[in-house]
Structure formats: structure tokens, C-alpha cells
TrEMBL record:
Keywords: Oxidoreductase. This is Aldo/keto reductase. The keyword Acetylation does not apply. The keyword Flavoprotein does not apply. Residues 15-273 form the NADP-dependent oxidoreductase domain. GO terms for molecular function: oxidoreductase activity. InterPro entries: AKR, Aldo-Keto_reductase, NAD(P)_OxRdtase_dom_sf, NADP_OxRdtase_dom. GO terms for cellular component: cytoplasm. It holds the Pfam family Aldo_ket_red.
Length: 277
């Protein structure tokens, strides 16, 4: 893997990470063998930043990572709290401080760690004062249960506000080549040295099937998915894409994207693909 690394807090990671969400469904699978093989292959390939959440499989995703990778030698497991899953189709924010604290305790147990390296607020709950949600996270840091705090789906204004209450080392917002609504957040993170973790980096796989991307990728001897990831990596030095897959073939392909160099001509053609926003 390309050696380009980034510091998230004082933790040093390769800039191409892995999103574990797709390793589990809403309910735990009876047979985890394949998912465990994928998780172990992630680490064998040199990926050392893995994103999960308590909401993925309502805990099953964190349990799977623990089964596959504990004690996580030199691998940063980033998890999230603050989103509930009353049913497979529902994602409902819950930012009450006592709930966030309990959720973090459960993450600690499932991941079998004394401290969570990176705990991200999955969603800001509009029904709870933002300062209270941040206060709960800051308290977890003060108690030594969480090393670093990140946020997800926030605006620049929210990020500025949050930093008055807690040190924010990462932001996880939806962003990819054809969805650039959070361009201003990425620019703010770049200027401030905050890691920016774009979720759905290959647009739920849509980019992999794009003919236009496929044509440019072919010039580089690469695939459309790799091109999409390489564009993200070159967009800013603080970007850490977390492509998700349940397939070892796709995983290997995605990790190899870290070694792909795009010329200014490629970047100009890709930049023209979608207007900002
Ligand atoms: N913060 C948030 O609110 C939030 C929300 C959603 C997701 N996330 C995080 O972001 C991560 C990534 O999101 P995502 O998995 O939804 O989207 P994604 O990474 O953009 O796309 C994943 C989809 O693309 C397919 N795929 C992956 N690599 C491919 C390749 N090389 N060629 C062809 N198809 C490929 C996968 O299918 P196969 O399994 O068949 O490879 C899967 O259907 C998640 O795992 C999760 O950790 C965060």
C-alpha cells in the first residue's frame, strides 16, 4: 500500500481505511466465517483504520470485529454512537447524554477494550441541546474511556461550535466524486488538520459501474472504483476514505487504489463530472 499516512489525534493511520458496515446485516448472521475472513484480510493488506458503529447490526458489527481482530494490534477501530435502529429501515438519532454514555459503555464491552480510540457522534440529535451531547463525549474522554472524539454529518457551523466543548479530531460526512455537498466542511477540515472520513466513497458502488469513470480508469489500467477512491485521496491530505465491501476481491481492488497516481489532466476531467453540491 502507498505509504501516505495521516495522524488522527496522535494515532497514525494509512489514509485508505475500511468501512465495516457491510460485514453484518440488521440481525447477526448464523455463519460469520466469510465476514471474519474479510475483516482479517483488511488487516493483512495493511489497512489500519476500520470504521464501525453500535447501530450496525445493533452491536453485531462490533462483536464481529472483536471476534476477527481482537486485540487489534496497531489497528484503530473507530466506532459511533447516537443512532438507534428500531427496525431495519429506521435510523433514529438519540443524543441524550445518559444514552450516549450507556452506548459507549456497550461499545467498550463488545469491542473488549478499556478505551475507544475514536468515538464518533453518529448524528446530532436535533431534540437535545448540542452542548449536552458534546458534554457527554467530553466526559467520556475525561474519564479515560474514549481517546478521541469525531462527529458525523455536521456543518462547518456545528463543527466550530463543537470545538468549544471538545477536541474534534475527525468528521465523517457523506462525500464522493458525484456528491460534494460537504465541500465547505472538507475545506474547513483541511485548513484545520481534522481528518475527513467520506462515507459512501464509491456512491454505494454506483461509481464502480460508471461507464465514464471506466473509460478514464482504463487509461490508467485501473477500475472505476479505484479511480473514484484515488480521486478522494488526492482531493485533500486529510481525507481517509472507508470503502465498504463484503467481498475479498473488491477489498483487494479498493486497497490497491491507494497506489494510483492521477495526473492534473485526470483530475480536471473528473472535477467536471459533477457540480459542487
Ligand atoms: N456516518 C454515517 O452516517 C455513515 C453512513 C453510511 C455508511 N457509513 C460508513 O461508510 C462505509 C462505506 O459506506 P458504504 O459501504 O455504504 O458505501 P460504499 O463504500 O460507497 O459502497 C459499498 C458498495 O459498493 C460495492 N463495492 C465495494 N467495492 C467495490 C468494487 N471495487 N467494485 C464494485 N463494487 C464495489 C459493495 O458491494 P460488495 O459488498 O459486493 O463489494 C457495496 O455494495 C460503511 O461501511 C460505514 O462504515 C457511515
Amino acid at each position: 500500500m502507498n505509504n501516505t499516512r495521516l495522524k488522527i489525534g496522535e494515532l497514525d493511520v494509512h489514509r485508505l481505511g475500511f468501512g465495516a458496515m457491510r460485514l453484518t446485516g440488521y440481525r447477526p448472521a448464523a455463519d460469520r466465517t466469510e465476514a471474519i475472513q474479510v475483516a482479517r484480510r483488511v488487516v493483512e493488506l495493511g489497512v489500519d483504520f476500520i470504521d464501525t458503529a453500535d447501530a450496525y447490526g445493533i452491536g453485531a458489527n462490533e462483536e464481529l470485529l472483536a471476534q476477527a481482530l481482537h486485540p487489534y494490534d496497531n489497528v484503530l477501530i473507530a466506532t459511533k454512537v447516537g443512532h438507534t435502529r428500531p427496525s431495519p429501515a429506521e435510523w433514529t438519532p438519540c443524543g441524550r447524554p445518559e444514552y450516549l454514555r450507556q452506548a459507549a459503555e456497550q461499545c467498550l464491552r463488545r469491542l473488549q477494550v478499556e478505551r475507544i480510540d475514536l468515538l464518533q457522534l453518529h448524528r446530532v440529535d436535533p431534540a437535545v441541546p448540542f452542548a449536552d451531547q458534546l458534554g457527554a463525549l467530553a466526559r467520556l474522554v475525561a474519564e479515560g474511556k474514549v481517546r478521541h472524539v469525531g462527529l458525523s454529518e455536521v456543518s462547518v457551523q456545528q463543527l466550530r461550535e463543537a470545538r468549544q466543548y471538545v477536541d474534534v479530531v475527525s468528521v465523517q460526512n457523506r462525500y464522493n466524486l458525484t456528491d460534494r455537498r460537504h465541500e465547505d466542511v472538507l475545506d474547513y477540515c483541511t485548513a484545520e488538520g481534522i481528518a475527513f472520513i467520506p462515507w459512501v466513497p464509491i456512491a454505494h458502488g454506483e461509481h464502480a459501474g460508471s461507464q465514464l469513470l471506466g473509460m478514464i480508469a482504463a487509461e490508467l489500467g485501473a477500475t472505476a472504483a479505484q479511480l473514484s477512491l484515488a480521486w478522494l485521496l488526492q482531493r485533500s491530505p486529510v481525507v481517509v476514505p472507508i470503502p465498504g465491501t463484503s467481498s475479498i476481491g473488491h477489498l483487494e481492488e479498493n486497497v490497491a487504489a491507494a497506489g494510483l497516481e492521477l495526473t492534473s489532466d485526470h483530475l480536471a476531467r473528473l472535477a467536471a463530472l459533477s457540480p459542487v453540491g
